[in-house]
Amino acid sequence: MTDRTVHLPVSAQPTVADIVGFAQRAEDRGYRRAWLPETWGRDAATVLSAVAERTDDIGIGPSILNVYSRSPALVGQTAATLQELSEGRLRIALGPSGPAVIQGWHGAEFERPLRRTREYIDVVRAVLSGETVDYDGDIFTLGGFRLRCDPPETPVPIDAAGMGPKSVELAGRFADGWHALMLTPEGIRDRLDDLRRGAELGGRDPDDVRVTLSLTCAVSEDGERARELARQHLSFYVGAMGTFYRDALARQGYEETAHEIAAAWGNGDQAAALAAVGDDLLDDLGAVGTPEAARERLAAFERIEGVDRVAVSFPRGAERGEVEATIDALAPDA
Description:
This protein is of the alpha/beta class.
């Protein structure tokens, strides 16, 4: 069986201590790593510092840091610091995100995302080596940068996130792992072909590239409540977050559904957007429902050849008790 990890809730939480509490709970329940999404709430570096200080064994990592809002040298420094605080438990994930986030929220041009991600990985690795960084790329040019502290004794693996064929190929060619999200089982298999092609282009063994699948999970004794949370989550991301997720669904055989959701959101009809998310789509993209049903569906994703880690993630509308119930029900030893 693959190892289970957890994506800490992307939704707003009352305090940083609440987020840390979820990580501690996941550690107690046997999860291997606590990933922290960085969206429009608290920044990942600060919160992961608190998680590192208040846990003992669980791995930590941001998933994802976008490659536009920070310089790669700064991310290298941040990774070195978090690796020190966590005593070697860090793994980071980088990715371009999408225009709605980069242009709309950060005021940066969403230009050459694949090339930028590739060079970003190069620079972060160079910084973490502790050597002087002299880098001359198409996008980044650095000269004379060097850490003023010792580089990490334990190397920091660098993963890349991506949903499209070329971005996944890039992960296979240049990164230590690939973070997959909003993919059906068939969609994962298609992208795994892209990952293997990238690894071969880079002269690498595809088995050396770790695949982490982020899976929307919601568990409740009231199975319909769990499924409703997942519907709300999916319709929001497809309808309100630009074309990024809509295009991903369309590539996986749900083009009509994706456009129906987006059109309903665009017309301000959230009820219609929710209604467009059918049971087949919910089961193709997550593990939601009663504890028994969710465990069975999660196990099916774990059996997909080529998936190394499944990260239990939560709908944005899930309340604290619902997050805790899902962590408990889907724990590795549950």
